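Anyone opening a protein record will find just a pair of labelled lines. A complete record is shown below as an example.
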Amino acid sequence: MDWQDVLDTLVRDRGPALLRYGYLLTGDAADAQELVQDALVSVLARKARLREPAAVEGYVRQTMLSTYIDGYRRRRRWLGLRHLLASPDIADAPQGGVDTRRDVIAALAGLAPRVRACVVLRYFEDLPVADIANRLQISDGAVKRYLSDGVHALERVLGPVQAAAPTESHLVTTRSTR
């Protein structure tokens, strides 16, 4: 299988999953598409010998994560200057009810990049702490701290977090509502 076939297979079979992963990291559909495209180009340019779509997907996901974290400072700087150059965004029309998905995305947007990456990898990718530490190249303790900080920050915005089932081994504990 040559690199074009690998790319075709990966985009056809795993493209939507990669876009969802990018969306969880960035919180924006256009940014997610750009993140996936940049990661695909980067991985396929460097790893020309890879011929298995599953192996390429792992490299693409890792590249997406690294690109997101590394680009945070540039994005933050641009957001501080953008108002000087660009016209204001058009506001969305008001909606009748509270959309839980929007609330979660807005809450994730308020997290620091490493905290957000840890939360996405743990609760949306369902990775154990050791795997998250390995992907981000940080200690298990740092991952646990980022997860704790992330859960507390999300609770301030979304309310108390409750475990989905009593047998779950996630870091999130069941809390009573106040």
User: Anything to note?
Assistant: DSSP finds eight helices and no strands in the chain. The mean pLDDT is 79. The radius of gyration is 18 Å. Helices lie at 3-26, 29-46, 53-70, 72-85, 100-109, 113-124, 129-136, 140-158.
